[in-house]
């Protein structure tokens, strides 16, 4: 059996569509091939879909707001038997929902995520899986917590406006109106990075630029988030600012730790547990995975590396197919990856690569399968 376990290819294919494209390429050569399509996620966009596809839990839709405060219908997962909700940040505050010319990391908010958590509490949730990744935000989760009753006030006692930039003016934190149901809620937060909240490797410096922040804005936001952490001293905020993963999703990891008493777990580890990936590996002879970009930072918790490490332990080879290969990508071969291919068949603009992603993924999967078959024939002749 061959496991097809890709993450999404950002701006091109969902994880499910990517798995289907892989399968179509292989079936050009061998229609009867035994394939297991297992869409994956590491906490970013598509993680909810991967869990629902594997477990069959209920998909619910709630109208909340996006990162700019506009109404949006967002999905979340509900397991009635276990009273467990799955909330994906990217459904409410995802970068993919914000046009490039609208992205402004100073003002985007995670309020919609808080509203999804509130809907889960209304449904009777006792356990929450919160997946953090793919955000358009840099507000350290302050918007999420305000939707759940936290008050953030300036020195005049006026509520702060949304966004990370406003946190620089925070003078007083009031937790009196926090939703009391949070006290009985157990939370796992799935992260795909290990960055702290602030500093050169923090949320603002590393991820702010892709959310519309120039160098001056990065400095402004980093200072504002550090001030937010300092003001949360009574709630052990500063103790969490340097925790690995606190900088995930523009600082949402920090809020999950400081206010929700969350346990941070690598997103890919959580998803593999949800989909019983180890059981599938026991019958597999090859795994093909991939995502939009693979580089040195992939080692911090991205889907292909999590899969490769687990497959290595099981003695199963892994092939990675990537939309692009960035600096440091060869290091992934030290983590259990057998071979890696980029998708492009010739130099092309990004727009063309995105439009042809399914076609290119099918072509590369066909090539991998042909090589795999030939290697198997060679072994049989020995």
Automatic annotation (TrEMBL):
InterPro entries (alphabetical): Glyc_kinase_flavodox-like_fold, Glycerate_kinase, Glycerate_kinase_RE-like, Glycerate_kinase_sf
Swiss-Prot/TrEMBL keywords: Kinase, Transferase
Protein's GO biological process: organic acid phosphorylation
Segments crossing the lipid bilayer: none
The keyword Chaperone is assigned to this record: no
Molecular functions per Gene Ontology: glycerate kinase activity
SUPFAM superfamilies: Glycerate kinase I (SSF110738)
Family assignment from sequence similarity: Belongs to the glycerate kinase type-1 family.
NCBIfam families, per the entry: glycerate kinase (TIGR00045)
This protein's name: Glycerate kinase
